[in-house]
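Before any further analysis, we paired sequence with structure tokens, yielding the entry below:
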Amino acid sequence: MSMAPQSRPHLLGTHEIRIRLGGISRQRAHQLTAGPTFPKPIAELSLGKVWRADDVEAWIREHRPGRA
């Protein structure tokens, strides 16, 4: 059984977060995502951690308002 497209959460990996934050370096993205204020990932896959896009966008609005 597949999920309906509307019920699929929009997910972001570190690469997408880097792009969303203006093309920051991989190192800086890892620093930010490991920080105490960044949302916890919803899963850790063999390719890396993934976050809900809504959680990341809320963090950006609060901590990087110039990027919102």
User: Anything to note?
Assistant: Helices lie at 14-20, 26-34, 53-63. DSSP finds three helices and three strands in the chain. The CA atoms of residues 18 and 62 lie 17 Å apart. Strands lie at 11-12, 43-45, 48-52.
